[in-house]
Write a structure and sequence with these properties.
disordered C terminus; 49% helix; seven-stranded mixed β-sheet; alpha/beta
């Protein structure tokens, strides 16, 4: 019998307790693909994302900054690094509850799709680790085996919803019987398409919307989200700067300002 329903999962903070866009920063540094300054910027951006989340505008600026940083990277080098370090970098951050939920959807005969604003080249190894059938994600332009720095498809907000509609039409899924999971209010358009929308570890705006709309709300706690502050050895900065960064994070503000100041002093 053909599958008639699907389960659509956002990735960051929904399946994994981290950001896939920032997760491999240390490994890219160790491989010489980014500088220590860029590694610091990635670490601060990751900490800011984990602590404060990201607005729609911040997501756009992060997309542009990361795409430009990756310009010239060989696709084969990225795939090698993400595959070799997957089990030490990302696997420990996978929520056990998400892994079990994906398994239950498979057992029920539903296709599971990760639909993410992160680049597909970073999402695909995570999907393989989880046994997920399909990835629909942001696409980066490739020429002669290397990234150009251009984004050819960006899946955020309404673009995610449009991708779900197209995917369902192509595969013949009944969206009323389908499920969708996300942590962010930017994914409300996608969640609203299915008959079973679920907010996972929702931000404040999504939690409010979910409660008002009668949507399901889940709390994934294993593993606990980690807010990792870079150490001086990893990024080559002095103890004074590191202490200032830690203080800003503990206070829960000024991360963006710290990142900007670091850039200006480079």
């Amino acid at each position: 019998m053909a599958t008639t329903a699907a389960a659509f999962f956002d990735l960051d903070k929904t399946i994994i307790a981290t950001s896939s866009a920032f997760a491999f920063g240390k490994e890219f540094l160790n491989s010489g693909m980014i500088t220590r300054q860029e590694a610091l910027e990635i670490s601060l951006a990751k900490a800011s994302y984990m602590w404060l989340g990201q607005s729609s505008e911040k997501m756009d600026s992060t997309r542009d900054a990361l795409a430009q940083m990756a310009a010239g990277w060989r696709v084969e080098d990225i795939q090698k690094i993400t595959t070799e370090t997957m089990r030490t970098v990302v696997t420990p951050a996978i929520y056990a509850e998400a892994r079990e939920l994906i398994r239950s959807h498979h057992e029920a005969g539903r296709e599971v799709i990760i639909i993410s604003a992160s680049a597909s080249i970073l999402v695909e190894p995570i999907a393989r680790e989880l046994g997920v059938d399909t990835v629909v994600a942001t696409e980066l332009e490739v020429e002669d085996g290397a990234l150009t720095g251009r984004v050819t498809r960006y899946l955020k907000g309404e673009a995610k919803a449009d991708a779900v509609r197209r995917f369902a039409a192509e595969r013949g899924y009944d969206l009323e019987d389908s499920y969708a999971y996300s942590d962010s209010a930017t994914d409300i358009p996608m969640l609203a398409l299915v008959g079973h929308p679920v907010a996972v570890n929702p931000d404040r705006a999504l939690k409010k919307h979910a409660m008002h709309s009668g949507w399901g709300v889940l709390s994934f706690k294993n593993p606990e989200p980690l807010i990792a502050v870079p150490n001086a050895r990893e990024v080559g900065i002095g103890a004074g700067i590191l202490a200032a960064v830690g203080a800003a994070l503990a206070a829960g503000f000024a991360v963006t300002k710290a990142l900007r100041n670091t850039k200006e002093s480079a």
